[in-house]
Amino acid sequence: MNQTPKHAVVFAYHDVGVACLQALIDAGMQIDLVITHADDPNETIWFSSVQKLCEQRGLPCRIVQPSALLNLVSEIKAIAPDYLFSFYYRFMLPTELLETATIAALNMHGSLLPKYRGRAPVNWAVVNGETETGATLHVMEVKPDAGDIVGQVAVSIEIHETAKEVFDKVSQAAKQVMEQVLPQLMQGKLPRRPNPLTEGSYFGGRKPEDGRIDWTKSAMSIYNLIRAVAPPYPGAFAELSGEKVILTKSSLPLDPGVALSPSQAAILKKSGLGMHLVDNRYFGLCGDGKVLELFLA
């Protein structure tokens, strides 16, 4: 007996949007409408395009301004999708839209919920020196990232990896989550378990200014910040001789008494906390007395 195909309306953007939309296509989900949003002209676009994937696959796709989302309610009500998906769509969906899904409205989040709810979860995880994160599909509620967990896949964060490298792993984890739960979703079944919010925290968005290095912090903390905002993100920055410099990466913290020559260590100690040019190499002396070798954009 043939299974009745399930229908979906999808809000999607970025690499996770492309990966998860592809998973829906591969599973045979009937995609009645895809909503994306315009690229930010002030942002470097280094990621895949949902709109291009839709053009390649012949899917109905529309760019909608976030202020006009409520205008979609009557149209999507008429579609009466089984599922409404949000895959790295950058704007909160109004309750009226969530209620158009006859089975569930589901969001893909780039962390292991309930940890790192909110904005820029991968960057925050790297900033905080986490060794693991992942992707979580969850039921959408009015409160962000608060609904029941439907599926989850973890990925490691290696000590040398930048946020971009971790994000690439999270994008693949998101697709794996979809591949794991889609057989049940296609049958109209919704696996779900509680999302214990007290076991995690909410984080806000990050601004370029958040990349400013505070040299009073430990070398490991600064190292993590540099890799958390390394290109294609805006980059960590410091001042050298009154000039702002963007840092692309750094070494792991060095013990100045071991990894530097005696003369280099003496110069840094005398110069004090901050960024310094010594023997044509850039170093940062940090609040815990350790040193980072720094590499500029």
Report the helical percentage.
Answer: 25-40%
How many helices in DSSP terms?
A: 8
Radius of gyration: 22 Å
Task: Write down the overall mean pLDDT.
Answer: 94
Q: Percent of residues in beta strands?
A: 25-35%
Structural class: alpha/beta
Q: Spell out the helices and strands N to C.
A: EHEHEHEHEEHEEHEHEEHEEE
Report the count of strand segments.
14
Largest sheet: 7 strands, mixed
Shape descriptor reads elongated
Oligomer: single chain
Polypeptide structure, described:
The chain has 8 helices and 14 strands. The chain has 297 residues and is an alpha/beta fold. It has a 7-stranded mixed beta sheet with strand order 3-2-1-4-5-7-8. Helix 1 (14-27) links the parallel strand 1 (7-12) and strand 2.
Concise account of the structure shown:
This protein is α/β, with parallel strands linked by helices. The chain is built from eight helices and 14 strands.
Properties at a glance:
single chain; 297 residues; alpha/beta; 7-stranded mixed sheet; 8 helices
Secondary structure layout plus pairing:
Elements: E1 7-12, H1 14-27, E2 30-36, H2 50-57, E3 61-63, H3 73-79, E4 83-87, H4 95-98, E5 104-109, E6 117-118, H5 121-127, E7 132-139, E8 149-156, H6 163-185, E9 202-203, H7 219-228, E10 236-240, E11 243-250, H8 262-271, E12 274-278, E13 281-285, E14 291-296
Parallel strand pairs: 1-2, 1-4, 2-3, 4-5, 6-9
Antiparallel strand pairs: 5-7, 7-8, 10-11, 11-14, 12-13, 13-14
Helix pairs in contact: 1-6, 5-7
